[in-house]
UniProtKB/TrEMBL annotation:
Single GO term (MF): NAD binding
UniProt pathway annotation: Lipid metabolism; fatty acid biosynthesis
Family: Belongs to the short-chain dehydrogenases/reductases (SDR) family.
Oxidoreductase keyword on record: yes
Single GO BP term: steroid metabolic process
Entries under InterPro entries matching the protein: 3oxo_ACP_reduc, KR_dom, NAD(P)-bd_dom_sf, Sc_DH/Rdtase_CS, SDR, SDR_fam
Biological role stated in the UniProt entry: Catalyzes the NADPH-dependent reduction of beta-ketoacyl-ACP substrates to beta-hydroxyacyl-ACP products, the first reductive step in the elongation cycle of fatty acid biosynthesis.
Active site, per annotation: Y155
Protein name, per record: 3-oxoacyl-[acyl-carrier-protein] reductase
Name of the gene: fabG
Assembly and binders: Homotetramer.
EC category name: oxidoreductase
Source organism superkingdom: Bacteria
Keywords: Fatty acid biosynthesis, Fatty acid metabolism, Lipid biosynthesis, Lipid metabolism, NADP, Oxidoreductase, Steroid metabolism
Length: 245
């Protein structure tokens, strides 16, 4: 299997895109650490599915906004599973409204979780990746970070920031054999998009005329986590059915 002997840490890995990515990596041989907040039941279910694949799985409650909690989680993963080879920064939230009515706390929360949380995670793994001269960092951005979206000033800013941060990290760590890339999903069927109607003006513009699945994103994550992508870094791959073309 492509990822035999590797350990992946997936933030927001108990549900939605994170769950699909965790399962895909596990199917291909990786042991999985899931960092999450929220209800325990989905996390336990995901752990059970991973273990049913014959892989090790560990759960860690971690608010990525909290630098100390992130450092403790990364240390615990290395103690429990021996190492971290793949980091998937998937934890994210939305607090949508037009800019004129957006509260400062909603702007700050989205930036703190979506962008600063990824910063905390990358920094916590940075030195280990440098020393090993190996690492795969995969940041889940969004097409909103590429083209913007009305009512999502905070979300678009956080996802655009992820792209810029990934390019900078790619330049810092490239000489050490560490790859840092982004995935920019479009409309994907998850709880975050469950209220989007089929007649949504943006969805109508999707050339493929449908929403994507979490597995569509997970397949790209698998590629970026695998040896097949060892010469790809600083890239943003859209998974959007052609919407942002």
């Amino acid at each position: 299997m492509k990822l035999e002997g590797k350990v992946a840490l997936v933030t927001g890995g108990s549900q939605g895109l994170g769950r699909a990515i965790a399962l895909k990596l596990a199917e291909n041989g990786a042991d999985i650490a899931i960092a999450y907040v929220g209800p325990n039941e989905p996390a336990e279910e995901t752990r059970g599915e991973i273990e049913a694949l014959g892989r090790r799985a560990r759960l860690y409650v971690c608010d990525v906004r909290d630098e100390a909690a992130v450092n403790e989680t990364v240390s615990a993963v290395k103690k429990d599973l021996g190492q971290i080879d793949i980091l998937v920064n998937n934890a994210g939230v939305t607090r949508d409204t037009l800019m004129v009515g957006m509260k400062d706390e909603d702007y700050d929360m989205v930036l703190d979780i979506n962008l600063k949380g990824a910063f905390h995670m990358i920094r916590a793994c940075y030195r280990d990746f440098m020393r090993k001269r190996y690492g795969k960092i995969i940041n889940i951005s969004s097409i909103a970070g590429l083209v913007g979206n009305a009512g999502q000033v905070n979300y678009a800013a956080s996802k655009a920031g992820l792209i810029g941060m990934s390019k900078s990290v790619a330049k810092e760590l490239g000489s050490r054999g560490v790859c840092c890339n982004c995935i920019a999903p479009g409309f994907i069927k998850t709880d975050m998009t469950k209220d989007i109607k089929e007649d949504n003006p943006l969805l109508i513009q999707v050339p493929m005329k449908r929403m994507g699945s979490p597995e569509d994103v997970a397949n790209v994550a698998l590629f970026l986590a695998s040896p097949e992508s060892d010469y790809i870094t600083g890239e943003t791959i859209r998974v959007d059915g052609g919407l942002a073309t």
